[in-house]
Amino acid sequence: MSKFQSDMKKIDSHQHFWKYDSQKQSWIDDEMAVIRRNFLPEDIKKEFNKNQIEGCVAVQADQSLEENNFLLNLSREHSFIKAIVGWVDFRSVDLIEQLEKYAEEPVVKGFRHIVQGEKDPNFLLRSNFLKGISSLKQFDFTYDILVFPHQLGAVLEFVKKNPNQKFIIDHIAKPYIRDGFFEGWAVLIREIGACQNVYCKISGMVTEADYTLWNYSQLLPYLDVILESFGTKRICFGSDWPVCLVAADYSEVVTVAKNFASGLSVSEQEDFWANNAIRFYNF
Predict the structure, then answer these.
(1) Which of 6, 146, 232, 280 is the most exposed place for a label (fewest CB within 10 A)?
(2) Angle at 225 between CA 219 and CA 230, to 5 degrees
(3) How many CB atoms are closer than 10 A to CB 141?
């Protein structure tokens, strides 16, 4: 058993920035009203300093090309934004031209589609989307998988159809922790974790549990499955700030990760906190 190493390099592999817009952020319901405001780099810097976070991966929160420009502009002003996960329409006829454009921006490392919001449970397997995904490898772009547990069957087929593409699962695929939903999620996560081209972010867990009553012991069985399935070389720390604020402040989310990491060796902790994210996103 190791202990948490406070002085090691730490990267937050998953956070968002936005200027609050009631239409763009319409997913923020009344229960999440605390995040109905602007969240910009200056808001997170003090949390980084407090928790010794060196840098972050900024992930799209709006499905638009304007979102990419917004994040790019922020990255030019704030060097702690080490990587951007943007958005493109993978079904677009001019996808290659868009990817060529973003390949000229070194900070843009990958893309994401908000698949959890798609009504089609097999959205990931549609031929036009798969064709678009197959174009990422030539530019060395990554892809973040954002889904709910009921979509994991499609995810398993999706990653197997693209064995040479680098994927990372956001928020451990958002299991319904507050409902005690476990086995149905765990079975498929183990199968997906067996695919060596897939990583997983340990992020977003507190908001899948009860916002006010969650505790670490509720999260531990899920963390154990992720560690068993992906090992220590394919897991990354992510805060999911500012979404996490509906259930926990930044330091509380870091504490969850510290508790988890304390059972790892020093080198494994270094991988979890920074090296795996740096290797996956190539920065």
Answers:
(1) 6
(2) 125
(3) 23
For the cut 80, the answer to whether the pLDDT of residue 82 exceeds it is yes
Other C-beta atoms closer than 10 Å to the C-beta of 46 total 10
| Among the listed residues 265, 282, 248, 280, the one whose alpha carbon sits nearest the alpha carbon of residue 8 | 265
The DSSP line for 27-55 is T--GGGGGG-S-B-HHHHHHHHHHHT--E
Euclidean distance between CA atoms 212 and 194, whole angstroms: 34
E-assigned strands of 171-228? Answer: 198-202
Residue among 157, 58, 154 nearest 112 (CA): 58
Fold of 11-281: TIM Barrel (3.20.20)
The beta strands (E) that lie in 123-218 are given as 142-145, 167-169, 198-202
pLDDT tens digits along 166-212 = 999 999 999 999 999 999 999 999 999 999 999 999 999 999 999 99
pTM above 0.90, yes or no: yes
At position 52, the amino acid (one-letter code) is: Q
**Phi-psi category of residue 140: left, alpha or beta, with phi > 0 → left and psi -120 to 50 → alpha:** left
pLDDT (tens digit per residue) in 131-167: 999 999 999 999 999 999 999 999 999 999 999 999 9
pLDDT tens, residue by residue, 234-280? 999 999 999 999 999 999 999 999 999 999 999 999 999 999 999 99
Domains in the chain: boundaries: 11-281
For residue 248, what are the contacts with CB-CB under 8 A and spacing of at least 6? 206, 214, 256
Q: Given CA atoms 28, 36, 115, 228 in this order, what sign does their dihedral have?
A: negative
Structure tokens, 258: 């510290």
